[in-house]
Amino acid sequence: MNCNICGAVTHTAFTAKVLGNYAAEFNCCKECGFLFAKDPHWLDEAYSSAIAAADTGLVGRNILISYKVAGVLYWVSRSHGRGRYLDAAGGYGMLTRLMRDSGFNFYWSDKHCQNLLATQFEFHPSLGACDAVTAIEVMEHLVDPVGFVDETLKLAGSDMLIFTTELYDGTVPKPEDWWYYTFATGQHIAFFTRQTLETVGRRLGLHFYSVNGLHVLSRQVLDPRMLRWATSRWTAKIGTPWIRRRLGSKTLSDHEAILCNAKSNSGAEPLL
Questions:
Q1: Which residues make Cβ contacts (< 8 Å) with residue 185, sequence separation at least 6?
Q2: Parallel, antiparallel, or unpaired: how do β-strands 190-191 and 160-164 relate?
Q3: Is residue 272 part of a domain?
Q4: Which strands form 207-211's sheet, in the order they lie side by side?
Q5: Which has more confidence, 263 or 138?
Q6: Average pLDDT, the chain
Q7: DSSP code string of 52-88
Q8: 134 closest CA partner among 179, 187, 98
Q9: Can you tell me the distance from the alpha carbon of 187 to that of 91, in angstroms, rounded to the nearest whole number?
């Protein structure tokens, strides 16, 4: 089977039981390091719930990522936090809400999940082009990562994707040695090395950067030192409240806009 990233021939790396029921074959590309599930026919069952119940790190991860993303968008990107942004495959809308609370004009999209926390801030191309797109813990769910990156950036009219996924160092981890496989949920089917993501970037004409657990594919050349500083734990902790004060949180203005919209749609005085 050929690699979906670089087209080279792949080989079987290991087999494992997925969802406690299916024998799954995982293939690996020797050229770029892409490790993936061959024929993941169990995905419909795996996504009977879009967010796996076992994802107990969802809340904490989104809070930490919101700090780092804020640093990149404010200190590193050309928009300096004053553009329009999209959280692709945004799940329940938690990151969109956190970023709007910090003053960023974020919107949500997800084909497979209900927007619970950022309702009325769904993205549509008619809103205009976005300065950056985020895709948090998405890449490991994809059969075609290159297609996803290309399609998402084109949809948003953007030239920067900020994303997260755990990387392995090039030696395929044994099935029992890496928690990130999450065979019990059946949702993680793609795994990457740094070289894999660099290859994705080259195919699409994008520069690849990886710092402090955050990855960036960008058409513009970025300063790696600024990226490292902007996503550091110290900068995230101190810088995010400062950025919120500079940009002005959208928490209250969003609240008022939603109530105003509800009133105009119902013709009655909204209840608080």
A1: 19, 46, 52, 54
A2: unpaired
A3: no
A4: 105-108, 84-87, 132-136, 160-164, 214-218, 207-211
A5: 138
A6: 93
A7: -TT-TTHHHHHHHHHHHHHHIIIIISTTTT-SEEEET
A8: 98
A9: 14
Domain region containing 109: 57-168+192-252
Q: Could you read off the pLDDT of 46-103 as tens digits, one per residue?
A: 998 756 667 777 898 999 999 999 999 999 999 999 999 999 999 999 999 999 999 9
Beta-bridge mates of residue 47: none
Which tokens is 168 given?
């392995």
CB 10 within 8 A of CB 1: yes
* 47 in Cβ contact with 203 (< 8 Å): no
Residue 43 lies in a domain: no
More confident residue, 106 or 60: 106
Average pLDDT, stretch 127-147?
97
- Residue-level pLDDT at 269: 43
Does any domain span residue 215? Answer: yes
Q: Given a cut of 60, is residue 235 above it in pLDDT?
A: yes
CATH number at 131 reads 3.40.50.150
Cα separation, 103 vs 101, in Å, equals: 5
Is 87 a member of any domain?
yes
Sign of the CA dihedral with 196 first, then 57, 227, and 135 last: positive
Give the count of domains, the chain.
1
Query: In the prediction, which pLDDT does 94 show?
Result: 97
Tell me which amino acid residue 87 is: D
Amino acid at the residue 62: N
